[in-house]
Amino acid sequence: MVTFLVFVIGLCLVTPGGGPSIEDMFVATTQAADETEGAMCLMPEGGDDVGRVLSDPAQDQIAIPKSSNIEGGDLPPVRMVVDPYPSFNGVTVDTANDLVLMSDTNRKSLLVYDRTAGSATPKEAAPPRQQIMGPDTGVGFVAGVAMDPAHRELFTVNNDVEDRLVVFDYDARGNVQPKRLLYVPHQSWGIAFAPRRDVLALSVQTPNMFVVFKREAKKFDAPIRSVRGPKTQMADPHGIYFDETHNEVVVANHGNFRPGELITSYTAYDARESRQERAGGEKLDENARGRFLPSSVTVFDGDASGDVAPLRVIQGPLSQIDWPMGVAVDEINNEIIVANNGDDSILVFPRTASGDVPPTRVIRGSLTGVKGPMGVAIAKDEIYVANFGDHTALVFPRLAGGNVRPRRIIRNAPAGRETSGFGNPYSVAYDTKRREILVPN
Asked: What is the rounded CA–CA span in Å between residue 167 and residue 146?
């Protein structure tokens, strides 16, 4: 028997050295109204201390009472399962200013590091140059990121919840309002910035499409074009990259396909179209059903629009593509790099690869540290990997392959700290027989 219950999945924040920070202020706003005594259940340091209760008052960010026996009012939870550290997702590199930008889905923030941050065997978290976080930022369940050195702007897109892209100045930090925001289709995930064209391309999961906006688009501005339809062969697209050198757009697809007839209007943006328009035809197929397809990488002409076939598709068992997340193109050395989340690997293909072909190199194995890779970037002969499966980002030499150690590791938590793996939990259940809490993620 499984019974449902109300359960709070919380976030806690770590305060760096120095004076009051946005983290301090955020924690302060979540304090219980009345003074209580207790502790918080944090993620363990590995080993057998699961559910360890911190006894150091300096580390007890939120006071948790031993019981809640007051009826009504602002009651704190009795217990919390909390990962107090960031979880990396998207990653991008600015080689002009030697900066790395990563999104954080756990604490809902953006983190900027020096491009050469980290070391081969770090024990402690690497301090970011700056962090954008707080209720005024509009940063929520963020995924893709992009940087524009020319206009000194940072971009990130909120995926399953807020349905908006937010833009910040390069020097933004703390709880600051975005300089502009753009309402985007529900489940927008990846961002590809094309500086020569001055446009942004966004992948959108459920409608199986990507849309292209002007860089300066804001609020309810419409995209200048979109690519979607059965001919595109996109299915639950995630990573996206705009290769301006070769005028191509590369998209990584999970393979979950839902036809237009089954796509619901979640937001004001989506409601612009009728169900019939989303289906792409004059008649609706009331018997339309979704289907599972093999994961793939689809490559489109950079000027593609509408329901058009890709130039090339990499798909099949030889490709080893499995639940691909981020994707990047090495425009100089003509290679496509894929963050292969399904088997904790990084796949490298020739840029012109097509069909069921094997990758030329694979980074995989226990020494690599690749665990739940989400974002990937290529810059200055180095491959950057943002892990969601632990508290690290990794940097490999461009030609790395096999079970090799990374050149540098950027930690966002001390070594040994486990992660809860919380992505976007919406509900929870309690298994009374096994005495387990089940969290669909």
From this structure: 10
Distance CA 441, CA 423 (A): 6
Phi (first) and psi of residue 260, to 5 degrees = -60, -30
Per-residue CA distances from 13 to 321, 335, 373 (Å): 35, 38, 23
pLDDT tens digits, 123-177: 999 999 999 999 999 999 999 999 999 999 999 999 988 899 999 999 999 999 9
The CA–CA distances, whole Å, from 98 to 92, 115, 403, 404, 420 equal 11, 5, 28, 25, 31
What DSSP letter does each residue of 83-138 carry, written as one string? E-S--EEEEEEETTTTEEEEEETTTTEEEEEETT--BSS--SPPPPSEEEESTTTT
pTM: 0.83
The low-confidence residues of the chain, meaning pLDDT below 50, are 1-41, 47-62
**Which residues of the chain are in CATH 2.130.10.10 domains?**
89-411
Q: Please give the CATH topology (third level) of the domain spanning 89-411.
A: Methylamine Dehydrogenase; Chain H (2.130.10)
